[in-house]
Amino acid sequence: MKKFDGKGFCLGAAALGILCLLACLPGPSARGVLAGLKSCAFQVIPALFPFFVVTGLILESPLAEWLGLALYPVTRLGLGIRQRRAATVLLLCWLGGFAVAASAISQSYRQGELDRRQAILLLVCGVGSGPAFVVNTVGLLMLGSAPLGVCLLGAMLAANVCTALAFRFLLALRPESVAPCSFRASAPATANQPAGLVGAIQSAVHSMLIVCGFVVFFRFLCEAAAQALSLDAARFYALCAGLEVTSGCAAGAALPGYAALACCAALSVQSLSVFLQVRALLCPELPLWPLAAARPLHLGLSLCFFRLFLRWLPGTADVISTLAPRVICRTHTAPDAALVLFVFCCLVLFRLERGSRRLRRKHT
């Protein structure tokens, strides 16, 4: 007798429900897809694609040995990772956000710079939303205060470090579950990929397609589900925060009296979309359960740190209760800022490629 596949049944039922949403609510479904595509065109791609390319080049260059020395005390004393490159990986994770974090940790693990336990600790410590999204989009555009966004970012990073410290001792109690495996286990899969700028751009394009696919799908799902269920503001926030972090922050910013705390909670939980993006970008050898298990602790710590940081900024707490009932967010990058970012990335890529050529000539 064939064993009942509960997981497959649940996935099939969920797919059937989504198909019903498409059939019954074509208008909201189309609006959700269009919102996702706009988010990819004006926010996700300008912010992430150059970072994906630069991250790949930095991790292949000698810059990775010293670029993150400012965070070396965190990785060496806090996480117990001796390699200096781990500090650079953590710096790139904090600057680029969760998608860059998954890509950078996977690349370092495949190159043999990290073992399985170290990669898990960096995953717990590094996955989160980037400074540009937290400070500019959530703080300035959604909550109307850049200092409030800085407080949110500080709370997220402090909670990341404290949660990783707790998991360091937890993993030490279970060495058999995170025993180091062969560093070069996945090297043959990446041996045929070109190195340098060509390989970095190929990898960035692949990662960017994955991220945009998830963004579009979950934006559609949020829009259609909210229309079908006719939820109030609080339940709409809970739905969006569970499905997609940007929609969750936008819905939380519209909650009178709890806007900043709701955004903090949404940024800490990260949403199902973020977890699936990390799973898609993370190499199969690394588990995702530590990141999921860390979120309840991270949520409590981030709310405590955020309240603490608010005391140092008198006056910013007034923003929490003075928002309009409906917040309209401009989350796209201005054309002049996008042009400056593009030129800067081109200059960085040129210098890195020129330096890598000099190194290859010296070795040959």
Shape: globular
How much helix is in the residues?
A: over 70%
Rg to the nearest angstrom? 21 Å
**What percent of residues are in strands?**
under 5%
SS summary, helix count = 16
Tell me the number of strands. 0
pLDDT averaged residue by residue: 80
- Unreliable segments of 5+ consecutive residues: 175-191, 316-334
Distance between the termini: 63 Å
Q: Let me know the largest β-sheet.
A: none
Order of helices and strands: HHHHHHHHHHHHHHHH
Structural class: mainly alpha
Key phrases:
globular; mainly alpha; 364 residues; 73% helix
Can you walk through the features of this model?
The protein has 16 helices and no strands. The model is unreliable at 175-191 and 316-334 (pLDDT under 50). It has helices at 6-24, 26-60, 72-78, 85-96, 98-110, 116-126, 131-142, 146-172, 187-190, 196-229, 233-243, 245-253, 259-269, 272-281, 289-311, 335-363. It starts with 5 loop residues before the first helix and ends with a helix. The protein is 73% helix and 0% strand.
State the gist of this model.
The chain has 364 residues and is mainly alpha-helical. The chain has 16 helices and no strands.
